[in-house]
Amino acid sequence: MTGLDAMPAGTMSGIPQVLLAHHLKQLKLPTVLREYDKVARECARDGVDHPRYLLRLIELELIDRERRTVERRIGAARFPAVKSFDTFEFTAIPSLNKMLVLELARCEYILRRENIIALGNSGTGKTHVALALGLAACQKGFTVTFTTAASLVNQLMEARDDRRLLKLQRDLQAVKLLIIDELGYVPLSRTGAELLFETFSQRYERGATIITSNLPFEDWTSVLGSERLTGALLDRLTHHVSILTMNGDSYRLKQSAGRRRAPADQNQAPSEIVDPDTGEITTS
């Protein structure tokens, strides 16, 4: 008598489900494990044959696997927030070429290893656009890294001091899309500027880069500290580039002005203001 023959009859009915759960976990098919019984009942009800039953299960697994993969890319990108163009108010920034932005969201510039530079004063949605383009890249299957210029320079300098600079540079060179936010907000030391320049040089025609800056190109010397370095950097960045002009009134200034006007306008119907960076709607 085998071990299975000696088992009580009531125990035998649960063995296939236990073994199936074990095998599906070993094969790393969590969606099939979660959905197979429900889909089986639906297929039995609808008269669906076995191949179509399996097709439904495998499609669910593939869809869920792609969703998890995108979520991992988004997590690895280290976005400060997840933003999309669904919440971006294009009408608030008339200088921005909406058609160009939506074309860039198709991510073909990444395949061509081209750059994007978003220029404009503070509060006009440059970070939101960069984040939305980064999200689109993750959804298209590209690796993305997001950082501010000041944070990146700090990482490079710390890595140099710890003798990890080559590894960090290799990691930055390997990522398909590097997003550097807020170039121009903090002046850089000579060493920091040189390390940043080296990062851009290593990515030149090897990977796509998005940069946001509150300064026009002619003022970048005040951040990098050297006309020679600035010229060489711009020569590389603008060789294959799409420039997004994002000049306009700052949302934050509009919001502040709206609060100051509030006592005089209490009898008027409130108006809505959309923050280009956060997509949040407030009334003034």
Give a short overview.
The protein is α/β, with parallel strands linked by helices.
CA-to-CA gap between the ends? 83 Å
Per DSSP, what share of the residues sits in E-state strands of 2 or more residues? 5-15%
- The assigned structural class equals alpha/beta
Q: How many discrete domains?
A: 2
Please write the CATH class name of the largest domain. Alpha Beta
Q: What's the CATH superfamily of the largest domain, by name?
A: P-loop containing nucleotide triphosphate hydrolases
SSE series: HHHHHHHEHEHHEHEHHEHEE
CATH architecture of the largest domain: 3-Layer(aba) Sandwich
- The rough form would be described as elongated
Q: So what's the oligomer here? A: single chain
Major beta sheet, strand line-up: 2-3-4-1-5
Number of strands: 7
Task: Give the % helix.
Answer: 40-55%
Describe it.
The protein is of the alpha/beta class and 284 residues long. The protein has 2 domains: 15-72, no CATH class; 85-245, P-loop containing nucleotide triphosphate hydrolases (Rossmann fold), CATH 3.40.50. The protein contains 14 helices and 7 strands. It has helices at 3-6, 9-12, 15-26, 30-46, 50-77, 98-104, 108-111, 126-139, 149-161, 165-174, 190-203, 221-224, 227-237, 251-261; strands at residues 115-119, 144-148, 177-183, 208-213, 241-245, 272-274, 281-283. The strands form 2 sheets. It has a 5-stranded parallel sheet with strand order 2-3-4-1-5. Strands 6-7 form a two-stranded antiparallel sheet. Helix 4 (30-46) packs antiparallel against helix 5 (50-77) and helix 5 runs antiparallel to helix 8 (126-139).
